[in-house]
Amino acid sequence: MTFWLFTIGLSTVIAGFLILVLRSTRTAQTGTEAEISFYKAQLTDIERDTARGILDRHDAEQMHAKIGRKILRLDSSRFETAPPKALKPSILLSFIIALAVIGGSHLLYLQLGEASYPNLPQADRIERAAFLLENRPSLEEYAKSFASQQQPREISEDYSGLVAELRSAIAENPSDLKGLRLLARVEAGLQNYSAASTAQREVLNLLGAQVTAEDHLDYAELLILSVGGYVAPEAETALQAALQLDQQNGGVRYYIGLMFTQNDRPDLAFKLWRDLLFKGPEDAPWIDPIRAQIQEVAFYAGVHNFSLPEQSSTSALAPVAPALSNDAMEAAAQLSPEERSDMIQSMVAQLEQRLQGEGGSAEDWARLISAYGVLGDDTALQTTYQSAITKFSTDPAALVLLQNAVESARGSP
C-alpha cells in the first residue's frame, strides 16, 4: 500500500508540474491583456481631457501616438506568443495529461513491474545469484526429494532377462569397457539414470587419460537426468572437465546455460543459448530445448526484441535413419513431401539389402529397426528384428541393444 501511495503522489506532482507549465502561458497572456486595457483607458482619459480643453490638442496627439505605439507593441507580442484560440482548451488538455501520466505510468508498471518485490539492484542480484550457485544442493541432497518422482520404464520379461544377464556379465568383468558403455546406454534407455551414471563413471575411470569431452558430457547428462534436469555441483564438475577438452562443445554449453537459468542468471544463459541457436546445426540435440525456452529466458534477461530464427525444411529429416549426407540433405530440401518420403524409403531399403546380403554390426541392425519405426512400418520392423536376433543369438550385449531399439521404435512405455 505504501508503494502505491508513493507512486500516486509522485505521478500527481509530475502532472501538476506539467499543468503549471501549460497554464503559465495563459497567465502571461492575461497579464498582457490587462496592460493593454490600462493603456486603452489612458487614451479614453486623454480624449476626454482634450474635449474639455484641459489638454492642448498638440500635446494630446503626441501622448495618443506614444500610447498607441505601446498598445501595438503589446498586441503584437501577444499574438506572437500564442493565439487566444489556442488557449481555450488548456484546462481540458491539462486534465488529459494528468490522467495520461498517472494512469499510463501505473498501467505500464502493472505490466512490467512487481510491487511485492523488494528493491533488487543489479549488483545485489549478481551477488545473490553467485551465492545460490555456490550453495545449491548437492546431487545426493536433491535426489532425496526427487526419488519419489522417479518411475523406471516397464519392460517385457524377455528384455528384463537380457538386461539382468548384461548386469551380471559386467559385475563379473568390471573392466569390460565396451560392456560398461553398453550398460550405461541400456540403463539410460530404461530410465534408470542413476545406474547409468554409475556405469558411465566407471567408463571414465577405465579410460583415464584417453577420456574425451563427450565422455564427460555423457556422464554429466546422466547425472542431470537422474534428478529431473537439475544441474547439481557434481554435474557442473563433469561439464567443466568436458569444457577443458572442448571449449565449443554445444551440449556442454547448453547444460551450463541451463545451470545459469536455475540460479538466477538468465543473462548469461541467454548469451550462451543464442550463440548455440544461431550457430547450429539445426539437427543438434540441444536446438529444440533451446527453442522451447530461450524466449522466456530472453524476457527475464531484459532482452525484449529477440525473435526465434526460422527453421529450414531439412531439419525435419534429422530423426530418420540412415543419416543423409550434406548433398542428400540439400537435394531432399528441394523435393515435395511425397518425393522426400520415397527417397528415404529407398535409402532404408538399400540399408536392408546390404545387411541381408553382406551382414553388419548389431548397431547397423538397430539403426534399421529405428528407421522402420520412424517410417511407421511395423511389419518390416518385426521382420528385421527377428532376423537380427537370429544372427546375434549368442551375443547377449547385441540382443540387449536390439531389444532396446525395437522397444524405442514401437514407443513402448
Question: In a few lines, what is going on in this structure?
Answer:
This protein is mainly alpha-helical. The protein contains 19 helices and no strands. Mean pLDDT is 79; it is low at 313-326.
Low-confidence stretches: 313-326
Describe the largest sheet.
none
- What is the chain-wise order of helices and strands? HHHHHHHHHHHHHHHHHHH
How widely separated are the two ends? 52 Å
Strand-residue proportion: under 5%
Please, what is the average pLDDT? 79
Binned, the helix content reads over 70%
Describe the structure.
The chain has 19 helices and no strands. It is 75% helix and 0% strand. The protein is mainly alpha-helical and 413 residues long. Residues 313-326 have low confidence and may be disordered. The chain has helices spanning 2-52, 57-81, 84-87, 90-112, 122-134, 139-146, 157-172, 177-189, 193-207, 213-226, 233-245, 250-261, 266-279, 287-300, 326-333, 337-358, 362-375, 378-391, 396-410. Among the domains are: 2-112; 315-413.
